[in-house]
Amino acid sequence: MGLVSSLSNAVSGLRTSQDSITVLSRNIANSGTPGYHRQSLNIIDYSSINSTYARSAGVNRAFNQSLQTYYNRQVSDTSMSNVMGDYLNKLQGYLGKPGDPGSLDTMFGSFKNSLQALATSPDDYPTRANVVAEAQAMARQLNALSGSIQQLRQETETRISNDVSEVNAMLVSLNEVNNRMLDLGMTDTARAQLYDQRDRLVASVAEVIDVQAEYRPDGTVALMTRSGVGLLDNGFSTFKFTTAGALSATSQTNIDTDQSRVGKLTLTTPSGLTIDLVQQGVLQGGELAGLVQLRDKILVEAQNQLDEIAAGIASVFSTITTPGTAADDGLGATGLSADISHLKPGNDILLTHTVNGVEQRVRVINSTNGEDFVDASGQRVISIDFGDPPDATAVAASLQTKLPGLAITSPSAGILRVLDDGAGGTRDVTGLTTRGTATGTQQGELAVALFVDQGNSAFTDNLDTNPPQIVGFASRISVNPAVISDNRLLVQFDIDGSLGDAARPEYILDQLASMNFVSGSTPAANAGRHQLNGTVEQLIEQVLNYQGTTIGSALTAQSNRQLTLDTITTQMESEYGVNLDEEMARLTELQSAYAANARVVSVVKELLDTLFAST
Q1: Do the beta carbons of residue 190 and residue 197 sit within 8 Å?
Q2: Residue 51 pLDDT more than 70?
């Protein structure tokens, strides 16, 4: 090898060593920068007849597309779990745990104890005053819990609005990055920095909404949701959120957009197509998906359960339960008859009969919705419009078509009669009970309207209002002002009734123990909901257990998702991150190589100087 070849080799070594040191210095300087990917110099060896030398051929950036794709997916899932876990943790703080002071079961237990004391000492003023105080505390707690849930729902709308603004800005930035990637005159260093910015922006978008990223050879990236809706490709989509204003317990989403009472989240693609992200089920991950699920399902379910509890408590006190009386047709068919003239919209009739010895239970509701289904307790629920006032003849005709094996008639005005199929038949009528609503306090009925709806109106569980009366009732329930003013009404069901008569408290305690409720009024309303079934006390227990399990599962999922993300992040740091020990060792090698090449240059210079001097 000649001196010139040796000099050429040494100079190329100096150049590549210097370039490598520059890249290494950049790695060390950015070792703590989030999203920075380790860089290395790409060196190519060239061979010729007389020499071999090296040249720098750009900068390589650490990148694993498979790992990056998995990371983006996990970022979306973790973000969704985090927002749901955070909100449900707040909800748990509001509800409390079973047995905690201020929890629903503790307060209801205290309320029930006060009623038992009232049944023992109905003429004792402090005892009656305590019942009123406990009733007010129960109503206030339901109001407060309902208000807290609606506040959480309102917060989700605020965060959705903020997320929309942020993701729009990030998509604009990503589009700019894509355009800059097409600049062929960009230096390798600038391009590597642009790659880092691209990956950080993609991960940030993934926090907000689930994305699938297509990393292209030219460095650009295309984004779409897991459901296939394009977000970024030759232009960017734009999110829009139209708020519905203040949310209340009656503000719920609806398939019919005209009936929906929550904010609307849409996406407009570069081609101008507008998609309703919620109605079309586009969201499958990211913070937006978690917020929408909280606003429209999880928190609404919690509100619905509070409404069921409030409805149960009000109904226990105000329901006039009247068993039917024996009836027959004089030809061998027997059964029961009941007066339905006092039944209001939402009131019902409970009918039990046997077919070949097997009990059949039917609940007939005064409603115009026309539903006919089997509820969570196995009871058949039939909705019939009773009319105003109730038309027993029309009710009997409608019910006869639903239950053809029985003889259902109206022998006189307001009276419904249900008979079996005779002495030799297979059917027997075993029960017929009407359940009306007491609207006052001293009407000769043991039931009393202790709890009332907004405007001191009676709660009848009317299904024909829009929305049904039960929706949001927990936020409106209150104690009847007349009872607050005069607690003797807890005992006196007649104007001249004795204060020592415990009939009304005992009736209410019996209702508490025997009156069962089943959540949901229609199959559509029941879809996707946890079904409650039992007495008021059992409803409260079921709600606390269900919410505790749901919240616990969400917090566990949050922890597991975060652990998985941390594991992936650690793997990415191993592949992408800068190891200072390795970089310093590499720096020592480069310094030694630089010094060796510099020595070769120096020796060649000395030899050439000697050679030229001798000529």
Answers
A1: no
A2: no
Q: What percent of the chain has pLDDT over 70?
A: 94
φ/ψ (deg, to 5) at 436: -100, -170
Contact status, residue 275 vs residue 227, Cβ threshold 8 Å: no
Contact between residue 592 and residue 8 where contact means Cβ atoms under 8 Å apart: no
Amino acid symbol at 96: G
The sign one gets for the Cα dihedral 481, 521, 526, 350 is: positive
pLDDT, average across residues 386-413? 95
Please choose, from the candidates 204, 575, 198, 31, the residue with its C-alpha nearest in 3D space to the C-alpha of residue 190.
198
Alpha helices in 96-124 (DSSP H): 104-120
| Rounded Cα gap, residues 538 and 543, in angstroms | 9
Nearest Cα neighbor of 437 from 343, 351, 506 is 343
Q: To the nearest whole number, what is the mean pLDDT of the chain? A: 89
Contact by Cβ (8 Å): 204, 40: no
Assign 3-class secondary structure to 178-240.
Answer: HHHHCCCCCCHHHHHHHHHHHHHHHHHHHHHCCCEEEECCCCCEEEECCCCCEEECCCECEEE
Closest residue by Cα to residue 562 from 80, 208, 34: 80
Burial 97-116 (b: 16+ CB within 10 A, else e): eeeeeebbbbbbeebbebbe
Reported as half-sphere exposure (CB side, CA atoms, 13 A), residue 412 has a value of: 4
List the structure tokens of 586.
Answer: 């590499």
Question: Which is more confident, 51 or 347?
Answer: 347
Q: What are residue 409's phi and psi, to 5 degrees?
A: -140, 175
Tens of pLDDT, residues 435-451? 999 988 878 899 999 99
What tens digit of pLDDT does each residue of 510-561 get?
Answer: 999 999 999 876 777 777 788 899 999 999 999 999 999 999 999 999 999 9
Strands 348-355 and 212-215, bridge-based pairing: unpaired
Looking at residue 59, its pLDDT comes to 74
Q: How confident is the model at residue 584 (pLDDT cuts 50, 70, 90)?
A: confident
pTM, two decimals, is: 0.88
Long-range pairs for 573-577 at CB < 8 Å and ≥24 separation?
575/62, 575/64, 575/67, 576/36, 576/37, 576/38, 576/62, 576/63, 576/64, 577/31, 577/36, 577/38
Residue with tokens 């009276």: 415
Name the one residue in this structure whose structure tokens are 């089920």. Answer: 281
The DSSP line for 7-54 is: HHHHHHHHHHHHHHHHHHHHHHHTTTSTT---EEEEEEEEE-SS-EEE
- Give the pLDDT confidence score for residue 615 in this predicted structure: 67
Cα atoms in the Cβ-side hemisphere of radius 13 Å centred on 377: 17
Between 439 and 481, the higher pLDDT residue: 481
Q: Is 354 exposed, middle or buried (0-12, 13-18, 19+ CB in 10 A)?
A: middle
Cα–Cα distances (Å) from 216 to 129, 232, 233, in that order, read 75, 13, 11
Q: Percentage helix, strand, coil, to 5, in the chain? A: 50, 20, 30
Whole-number Å distance between alpha carbons of 221 and 572? 19
3-state secondary structure of 558: helix
